[in-house]
């Protein structure tokens, strides 16, 4: 299997180049669907059935399993969208510099798509029936919070024993066994405008009221427990000499445990239920909509299986936690043992210098293939 994968390294890079050189930002439906069409053809060549879920605004999600699959116990999730707008590829297409490949989405996560296909090819090469034990979801809006694909992921996670999420490995090669959950709130304060020089007493400052709310919201932070409340963007007022009639705060919430969601939602509503500045009113929208991926007992067991597979092929596998959200949160919240970061190693995702460590592509493909085989035994 290892010899087969090593022999396909150049072929894998050629497919990565093809995928990277397609603009497939979350809002570029035609580009995401072009990526999907290429991948659909590859899977069908391998004897898989591809169920395309049509979407009007975003790209089309796909559910994929082998034609002989009956009740697969492993779910794999890999997203086809990137964060980059249309026109990015024309400015900086796929390139190779030394041991690294560069380009929009090269590691997050077009290389992972190729890794998954070639892991399946390697399993088929040695006659492994484990390819019939996997269900794959290729989704199109992970970078936006999996708006259309979350229900699909949650539906197909039910009844599964293991979830392998194909985000890239961390820069040091670590897999991800915990992710913070979170959400966003928009707090709108309405006051009453007045000239700040002529009749300030007749005004009701929305900005002043919002200032009180920001302080109260930030007091909810508890970094030791993994709770983060951050007012990262504010807007308000019409001119410097006018008592502000409106103000808006955009709030980012992060949690480490599922039960923290109910606590924070309650506290935020309490804070916004009353005003400090008489005559102002508050409206609030939003929710904590992404559960955390917790490092529980079943995830720990799955990690140790992957770690043992790593030892077998001479690869030291470590784990880490990350503050960012991802699709692993959805599989984990349905009770499935979940490990993320099974893609190749790279870094600087979402930036102009996003890169793939090319030499990690064959070793991570081998790790994935042997993990699927081991979990199916």
From TrEMBL:
<dbReference type="InterPro" id="IPR002933">
    <property type="entry name" value="Peptidase_M20"/>
</dbReference>
<keyword id="KW-0378">Hydrolase</keyword>
<dbReference type="InterPro" id="IPR011650">
    <property type="entry name" value="Peptidase_M20_dimer"/>
</dbReference>
<protein>
    <submittedName>
        <fullName>M20 family peptidase</fullName>
    </submittedName>
</protein>
<dbReference type="InterPro" id="IPR036264">
    <property type="entry name" value="Bact_exopeptidase_dim_dom"/>
</dbReference>
<dbReference type="InterPro" id="IPR050072">
    <property type="entry name" value="Peptidase_M20A"/>
</dbReference>
<feature type="domain" description="Peptidase M20 dimerisation">
    <location>
        <begin position="177"/>
        <end position="277"/>
    </location>
</feature>
<dbReference type="GO" id="GO:0016787">
    <property type="term" value="F:hydrolase activity"/>
</dbReference>
<keyword id="KW-0479">Metal-binding</keyword>
<dbReference type="Pfam" id="PF01546">
    <property type="entry name" value="Peptidase_M20"/>
</dbReference>
<dbReference type="Pfam" id="PF07687">
    <property type="entry name" value="M20_dimer"/>
</dbReference>
<dbReference type="GO" id="GO:0046872">
    <property type="term" value="F:metal ion binding"/>
</dbReference>
<dbReference type="InterPro" id="IPR017150">
    <property type="entry name" value="Pept_M20_glutamate_carboxypep"/>
</dbReference>
<feature type="active site">
    <location>
        <position position="81"/>
    </location>
</feature>
<feature type="active site" description="Proton acceptor">
    <location>
        <position position="142"/>
    </location>
</feature>
